[in-house]
Amino acid sequence: MTGQRAPQAAAPPPLPSEALAYLEHARVQKRLAERTLTLYTLDLQRLCAHAREVNLPLLQLTGLHLRRFAAQMHASGRSARGIALILSGWRGFYVWAARQGLIGHNPAHDVRAPRAPRPLPKALAVDDAVRLADHHAPADAADPWQEARDAAMVELLYGCGLRVGELIGLDVAASSDAHRQGRGWVDLEGAEAHVFGKGGRRRSVPMGPPAVRALQAWLARRALPFAGAQAQRLDAQALFVGQRGARITAQVVWQRMRQRSQQAGLSTPVHPHMLRHSFASHLLQSSQDLRAVQELLGHASITTTQAYTRLDFQHLAQVYDQAHPRAKRQEPED
Question: Which residues constitute the catalytic centre (predicted)?
């Protein structure tokens, strides 16, 4: 029938006096914004709803009750971050109640939200990574000096799995100064990059022939803009330098990788760490040697490296879905 109003959702029962007193404290004493007060009110309404389920007032709930409530929210699909925010609201209420002498112990003190799943590292498809590594800008549209430098950076990020900080910290050669200051260097004759990673951990990473060739091409051009009177501008130790001769910054590497990926026709803007993820994922797909990948990445714990096994499983699941006859959904017969 037309003209009828949709039924109104039932208003939540009024909050108990202690909850209202806390909200007034938050408004007057803490001077919280209206939006924040609204969120605090919603948190307390949720807490009251849970309290009614166990037939207890707010001030008689225990940590066990709150953990059960958090588990129920998690089971219903609420995110770990959302639960953490709600628990923060409850914790604030009980802190206030304890200070007022209304309770002897804060039941929310040790209650934690479920751990949020670690996001999978983003990696390029093998074809896209190779396309980026093989990309060469048209000769009439490229600065040969910048082109040689950027190509060498891509090879070390993807071919060696370096972090951007490790990349920009590389020197042209080993030196006592590099050792003292925790910088790495490249050894073209030995085809190795020696880097200092997180926690001051040193590791040696093999360089493939494309990386060695790219570095040779870069080193042949590196000092050309700084000949003669400009020589003093060049940082003689830094492997990768900017147009002013100083050691390149991480921000510039990010900008150059993003621009280079666009020039190569990739649909996804690439950042340096994505190439490190791609290095690990593609190596693991081929070798299945988790310990070796851990060593090459410089991870202190293999737990960190295991994130790539989840990524690899996603790749295998896609292959299965696309290729295995039993993975294809059978349409019901008429």
Answer: 163, 198, 273, 276, 299, 308 (o-(3'-phospho-dna)-tyrosine intermediate)
